[in-house]
Design goal:
The protein is of the alpha+beta class. It has helices at residues 24-34, 60-81, 103-112, 114-117, 133-143, 147-154, 170-175, 190-202, 236-258, 268-281, 298-308, 310-315, 319-332, 335-346, 349-361, and strands spanning 4-13, 41-42, 49-53, 84-86, 123-129, 159-160, 163-164, 216-218, 224-231, 286-288, 295-297. It has one domain (4-361): 2-Layer Sandwich (Creatine Kinase, Chain A, domain 2), CATH 3.30.590.20. It catalyses: L-cysteine + L-glutamate + ATP = gamma-L-glutamyl-L-cysteine + ADP + phosphate + H(+).
């Protein structure tokens, strides 16, 4: 059974106004003093963000429980400092991000200028264990067309600087301003993958291999494929579903590779169009089917993903749970839909943030 770990980036906000607060250093100091040695929370690029990482898990129910537990712990530590946490991929309210004091982050600010100052976005990264770099690259090549579906499921960033963007995932559009972000061409082997990343670093445009911000990549820290396409999910059960689908995608791709099946030869141009469509439409309208690259209703494309990874989900014992979570998601909608529903009811973006604080800890 492949292990799965999740990293989530949360937004720190004022409980009364909903405005982002640059208090991550204080929250981290409190967490370290209160829970010495647990090493769950990490600093991020901006003072308004707090990141946590789960332990590797094989049981998806245990992973889901850990996500909930980490969110509650983040809320507890933030509350002691006078702020709250919200699983929001962008701030609905206007914000001027505060870059954390760190040599690496200062390099980013100097190198990328305004693009760095406008990158206050929160994502979810899923690490799935692989046996080798060769298997990992084979997986990265084969899961490429399915990643936009995970983006549509997770989409949770409709508002930007106080306005409705009319995108479900505006975070992904902001994230793509990094020069190394987005879908990748086929690599074919681990050697070609590592050579491509080395060539990118050699240009001097990116600082190091950590900045290969591909939608899916080999982790430089762990023996995993790291899937980085998702918004941070508003609801913990959606995060668990994304993690289960990510593991099933990795397992399905590895089986295809071992069986000698070639990956779909979609161009990066088409993959970018699929990602844009998912960011714009979410689960409300049409997506591009990963195999045909033609438009179909979002529900049909999500069902196609479930069918594609059905055997892997069944073998890990996750199929029934994934089907039920998908039914619940399609009824309730993704985070973008929930945020817009609150805005329609109240007409106030502060109420949107307050509601999302509650959903984060539910």
């Amino acid at each position: 059974m492949r292990t799965v770990g999740v990293e989530e980036e949360l937004l720190l906000v004022a409980p009364d106004s909903g405005e982002p607060r640059a208090l991550s250093a204080a929250v981290l100091a409190h967490a370290e003093a209160a829970d010495a040695g647990q090493d769950v929370f990490e600093k991020e690029l901006y003072g308004q963000m707090l990141e946590f990482a789960t332990h590797p898990q094989t049981d998806m129910a245990e992973l889901g429980a850990e996500i909930v537990r980490c969110r509650k712990e983040a809320a507890r530590h933030a509350g002691e400092i006078g702020c709250a946490v919200a699983a929001l991929a962008t701030s609905p309210l206007p914000v001027s991000p505060t870059i954390s004091i760190n040599r690496r982050y200062q390099w980013l600010a100097e190198q990328y200028a305004i693009a760095t100052r406008e990158q206050l976005v929160c994502g979810m990264h899923v690490h799935v264990a692989v046996e080798s770099d060769e298997e990992g690259v084979a997986v990265v090549d084969r899961i490429r067309p399915w990643l936009p579906v995970l983006l549509a499921i997770s989409a949770n960033s409709p508002f930007w600087q106080g306005e409705d963007t009319r995108y479900d995932s505006y975070r992904s559009r902001v994230w793509d301003r990094w020069p190394s972000a987005g879908p990748t061409e086929l690599f074919g082997s681990a050697e070609r993958y590592h050579r491509r990343v080395a060539d990118m670093v050699a240009t001097g445009v990116i600082l190091d291999e950590k900045m290969a911000y591909f939608d899916a990549r080999l982790s430089e820290r762990y023996p995993t494929v790291e899937i980085r396409v998702a918004d941070v999910c508003l609801h913990a059960d959606t995060a668990q579903l994304v993690a289960a689908l990510a593991r099933a995608l990795v397992e399905t791709a590895a089986r295809e590779w071992r069986a000698g099946h070639e990956p779909a030869d979609h161009s990066v141009t088409l993959l970018r169009l699929a990602a844009w469509q998912s960011a714009r439409a979410g689960l409300e309208r049409e997506l591009l089917h990963p195999l045909t690259m033609r438009r179909l209703p979002a529900e049909a494309v999500v069902r196609a993903l479930l069918d594609h990874v059905g055997d892997a989900l069944a073998d890990s014992g996750d199929l029934d749970r994934a089907r039920e979570a998908t039914r619940r998601l399609l009824r309730r909608g993704n985070g973008a839909r929930v945020q817009r529903e609150v805005m329609e009811r109240t007409g106030n973006l502060r109420d949107v943030v307050t509601a999302c604080v509650r959903h984060t800890q539910a």
